[in-house]
Every structure is written in structure tokens, then in C-alpha cells.
Design a protein that fits this description.
- The protein is mainly alpha-helical and 380 residues long.
- The protein folds into two domains: 257 residues, no CATH class; 102 residues.
- 66% of the residues lie in helices and 4% in strands.
- It is built from 14 helices and four strands.
- Strands 2-1-3-4 form a four-stranded mixed sheet.
- β1, α3 and β2 form a beta-alpha-beta unit.
- The longest helix has 30 residues.
- The two termini are 31 Å apart.
- The mean pLDDT is 80.
Length: 380
Amino acid sequence: MKRVFFTIWRKEMLDAVRDRRSLMAAMSYALFGPMLMAVAFMVLIKDVVSERDVRVHIDGAEYAPALVNFLESRRILPGSDEHPAQDIWLEIPETYAEDLARAKPIPIVVRADYSERSAQSQRNRVESALREYGQSIAIHRLTLRGISSEVIQPLQVDRQDTATKGSRAALVLGMVMVFVLMSVFFSGMNVAIDSSAGERERNSLEFLLAQPVATHWLVAAKATAAASFAAFGGILALLLIPVVFLFVPLEKLGIDFAMSWSQQFVIALVLIPLALFASILQLFVSFRAKSFKEAQTYISLVMFIPVAAIFALEFTRFEHPILKMLPVTSQHNVLFSSIAGQPLDVMAVIAGSAITLALTLVLVGVVTRMLRSEKVVFGL
């Protein structure tokens, strides 16, 4: 039976490789996902560490020349014809000097569209400079009255960051590693649909089932063929992410992102059970559909579930012992622990892989039973 299994697997692989368009579509996600995230990080880093001038509209600058000079020292300048101001307005009241002399609060208005993310860092710089200037005025007032400025600082908080470069990498780059798991689900999707609903529409599935081959070997070979592409897509994304991020200046964010060959090898091994589970799940959904297009629609909806689970875990950082043993979440835990530099829970990794493979075998049995029905075989 091993010969039968490998014969069917080789046949499915040849059919998938001949379809260059599907092959490129399967691999493109693993390739362009990390590249898009790398570009996004480069833009983010440029925006965060940028020391460019911030050009703002200043109404009433003549009432507070000292404040304007302080803002200019922080590279916050008024707009000009040559350098137009951004949509940030700073309104200084006419009573600025009078209120300052009487030690009264001075209402300074910062007007901007706070829903615009592109100008968020510029707004933060303006508000931070105003707070700094206000604090310096308060200190000068206390000094003139013979009072130490320490009276307004009863607590001196010494912030000591114990985060390692690995933990910072996990916090920032966790979303990037999500593409590894998503590549597993998307890379083998076209192969799974074509070897199930596609063969049924081409009337080759009936001929294949008529051969003296056990149905469960047929299902296992089809799932393994799709899983081969799924695992290849995940491993390709895993190998490309460190290479792509070599060109991203993560050190400016205090992040050191590096993965050893041993870590990549362990992650690759963990991805294999997930690839098998994803492929047999896609075969199950495809055989439940009546046509090729319907299978694509159903799988797109089903794929949303693991993707949503991955993003939910990434944003909420929710932790529970059972998540270390479930499909998708257990593999996500291994990825997160690897980039954070945390020791892997070997028993949890083994349990997660075993449960994933067990569910895969259950789905193989379900699909095998489905193919014994004429309604499934002929799409009735």
C-alpha cells in the first residue's frame, strides 16, 4: 500500500506543479507577506525616529516670542511659503503675557485632526514640547519664591526596563511571524481545491475511485500532496523573514531579531502537523461543496476562523494552558516563544502536535466516508 500511496501522491504533485499559475499564487503569499511587513516597519521606524522639522500654524506668535523660540529649539517651526505647515494649529491667546505675569493658567489650543494617523508623531511632539515648556515655567516660579522645585515632585520614579531585545522583538514582530502560520493555510489551498472539487468537475475523481485502491489511502495521498505545498509555503516564509528584515534598521527601536538554525528547524517540524491538518480541512470543505467556485467560497469563509484566532491571540496576548495544545494556537505559541527567546515547553509542543495529527486522522476518516457517497462523488 505504500507504493499506492506514493503513486497517488506523485500524481497529485505533478498535476499541481504543471499548473504554474496556482503554484505561483501559492508561493506568492509566503514571499510578499514578509516583504510588505518589512516595508511597513521601515516606514514606521522612519516616522518614529525621524528628526524632521514639524511645520505648524501658529496664531498669536507675537504674544509669546519666548515660547515660539523654545518650540523652534525643538524643531517645531511656523509654516512658510517655501515650507507649508501641516494641518496642526497652535493658538496663543492675546492675554498670554498678562496671564503669565499673574501666574494664571494660560489656555493654549492645539487644533488638529486626531483621527489622522500619519500626523500622530508630529502632534505628540508639539504637545510634549508644550508640556516641557510649562514645566520649566513652573520650576522658575517656585525658584523665584525661594521654593525648591522638588516639592512638586514628591515621587521620583526611576524606570528600569528589564525587557530583553528578544522580548521587544516578540512584542513588535509577533505580527510578522503570523504570516508563517497564514502561509501554511494559503499555500496549499489551491492544490486542495483542485484535487477535490476540480477533479470532480473534470470527471476524473470517479475514474480514480474506481481503481482497486483503498479510499483512505487516496484521501491521505491527496491531503499529503496539498500539505507538501502548505508546509513548503510556511517554511519559505520562515526562511525569508530573517533575510528580509536584515535590511530593516530594527536596532533603532532597540530590537535584535535573529533566529538560529535550530529554532527554524524546530518551527519547521511543528508546521508539518499544521500543514496536514489545514490540507485535510480544506479537502473536507471542498468535497462538501457542489462546484469548484462554491468550494473556493466556502474555504475562504472557513479560512477566516484560524486567521481570526491568530490575530486575536496576537492582539490580546490571551494565555491559557489549553491553547498550547490546540491546532493553530499551539503552533502560534511555539513561534512566539522562539522570537521572544523563551524556553520551549517540550511537553506542550509534543501534545499540540499530537492533538493536531489526531484531528487530522479523524478528518481523513470523515472524508473517506464521504467519498463512499454518490452525492459527494457526483456533486449532487
